Amino acid sequence: KAGVTQTPRYLIKTRGQQVTLSCSPISGHRSVSWYQQTPGQGLQFLFEYFSETQRNKGNFPGRFSGRQFSNSRSEMNVSTLELGDSALYLCASSLQVATEAFFGQGTRLTVV
Amino acid sequence: EDQVTQSPEALRLQEGESSSLNCSYTVSGLRGLFWYRQDPGKGPEFLFTLYSAGEEKEKERLKATLTKKESFLHITAPKPEDSATYLCAVQARGSGNTGKLIFGQGTTLQVKP
Q1: B94 or B4: which leads in pLDDT
Q2: Lowest-confidence segment of A1-5, A32-36, A42-46, A104-108 by average pLDDT
Q3: Above 80 in pLDDT, residue B95?
Q4: Coil, strand, or helix at residue B80?
C-alpha cells in the first residue's frame, strides 16, 4: 500500500512569491492535516481537512491556506512568502478524523 | 493551554544500554497519545497510540506506557539503527472532533556501537 506522497520534495522560492504544495493521502484515507516543522518551533499544526471541509486551523496568518479535493488529495498554498516561512512542510493522512496519522516525507521549502 | 514537554532533549547511549524517554502532557482531556520516530530529512514514522492510563504497547526493542500525566518510551538493548528523534504528540478532547496533534520538541537519541 502506497504511503503519503508529497510533491515537490524540495523548493526554493524568492521572498514575495507564492507556492503550492501537494499531498496525496494513503488510499482510503479521508482526513488530511498539514504541519510546519522548524528547528526553533518544532512541529506546528496548520490545518486539517475531511471530506473537502476544513475542520480545524492553527495559529498561522491568512497567507497560509489549503483545500481538499473530492479524491481526498490536498494542496496548501502560501502567498507573499517571507524568509521565516522556510521550513519542512509535512502532510499527514488518517482513515478518519482523530485516528492514527501517517506522515509523508515532507516538502523542504527554502525562501531566499 | 494544551502542552507537551519531552525530556531529555538529547540522549547518548552505548549499544545495549537500556533507557527511557519521557513525555509529560497537559491537555483538556486526552483523546490519544502518539509516539513517532523521525530520521533526518524524513517525515515522522508512526510507532504507537495510547488511549488510557495503564495502557502499554510494544514493538521490537520499544515499549510505550501511559499514565494520567506522562508517557514513557522504554528502549531495551538499543542498537545504532535506533538512533533518531522520537516525537510525542497528543490529541485533546477540548479541540473538538479533530485530529489536531500537539507535539513535543522531541528527544534526539544517538546509540553508539
Answers
A1: B4
A2: A1-5
A3: no
A4: helix
Asked if A90 and B44 come within 8 Å (Cβ–Cβ), the reply is: yes
Q: Is B81 helix (H, G, I), strand (E, B) or coil?
A: helix
Strands (E), B1-113: 3-7, 10-14, 19-26, 30-38, 45-50, 56-59, 62-66, 70-75, 84-92, 102-103, 107-112
Closest residue to B97, CB basis, from A43, A97, A104 = A97
Which of B47, B101, B102 has the most A C-beta neighbours within 10 Å, making it the best mutation to test the interface with A? B101
CA distance A72 to A32: 8
Q: Write out chain A residues lying below 8 Å of B34, CB-based.
A: 100-101
Numbered residues of chain B with Cβ closer than 8 Å to any chain A Cβ: 31-32, 34, 36, 41-46, 49, 87, 89, 91, 95-106
| Spatial separation of the C-alpha atoms in residues B16 and B78, rounded to whole Å | 5
Q: What is the pLDDT of residues A56-85, one digit of tens each?
A: 999 999 999 999 999 999 999 999 999 999
| Interval B45-63 mean pLDDT | 96
